[in-house]
Amino acid sequence: MTRAAIRLALCLAWTSCPSAASPSAGASEERADVADRQGVRPWEDRTLSTAGGAAPYPPSPVIERVEFDFSTHRRLAPGSDNWPVTWSDDDRLYTAWGDGGGFGGTNSRGRVPLGVARIDGDAADDSGHNVWGGWNTDHPAQFGGKSYGILSVGGVLFMWVACQPNPHLGACRLARSADHGATWSLADWAFRFEDRLTIPTFVNFGRDYAGARDGFVYSFYIEPAWGPARSPTGPYGFDVHKPGRLYLSRVPKDAILDRACYEFYSGLAADGRPAWSGDVHDKRPVFEDPNGVGWNLSVSFNPGLRRYLLCTEHARTHAGRLGIFDAAEPWGPWTTVVYADDWGAGEIEVSTFYWSFPTKWLSADGARFTLVFTGKNTNDAWNTVGGRFLIKRAPDP
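The structure assignment produced for this chain is given below.
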């Protein structure tokens, strides 16, 4: 049986996994090489307890399980990783990569520490073009760093930039582009390691921030458990942060570059509403995992499901330790969708460390998606895979 006849679904669930999906479109030279297979058994994780420890939150009340169709897997831009994504006003996706040449480049050809690209097309036949930095780019990169958070608001791109070269955890600073990534300017302030905040990401909503819950822009931050120098335990200079704690800030969307306008979640008030403080020392975690959180994460809103989706690692980095969590509000309470020890086993190398759901590539009902992911070795690239959420019940209105 050939790949064109096989439904390759990867299920992470507590129940059995049916098979039904169409195969991918014609291959390109950069498409992942998924060999023909006989009798492939869907890989399943039926419990919330793994070798990496028990999941920190109960099962999702909305999402029963997730299926990943690896017959749709595509791999582009080999040698470049990270790939946070936002949907801009021009109906394109914009993304940032690290340590490579981006689209058309390699790990060495066109290599920059930080680059920005745009993504044209839909998930089945997307193509990338380097806008800022990288191989055959439109514009040279102006500075280095690493980014794990990018956002479009009012036709303007914003990007969280961590330090480069190491230590990445020393500071995180905003960059702004009013010309779709062609040129960038850096803010004159930063959140620093001493604030117990590192490697932020934005909460992404719809096209150019359409469908946002209110007039604020939200960012998640990791509490560093090591640093600001390289991790003493991780073999790559990075490792998960244990215990894992995440913090949340908000800022009016017309004042993103104004540090004085930032407020941090500081707990729930007596009426159950979130409390906010302009003093960073008043911050309280909105997410905790004793097994750790990754040194990066992604958060986006799925309007069809009316759930926020948070993706990060646990227990160990660069090892496919994927956690997907969902909540009705960005401050929680969170529940568990996926908590895997070896995500992708049997389909790809188990070496991923970053995953995100581009909001442009969600179906209207929120059930179908394309996931962007990256990792080390063969996964050191722009990777996409299609899939779907199987729903327990309709989400709350």
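Interim note for the steering committee: The chain has a mean pLDDT of 88. The radius of gyration is 20 Å.
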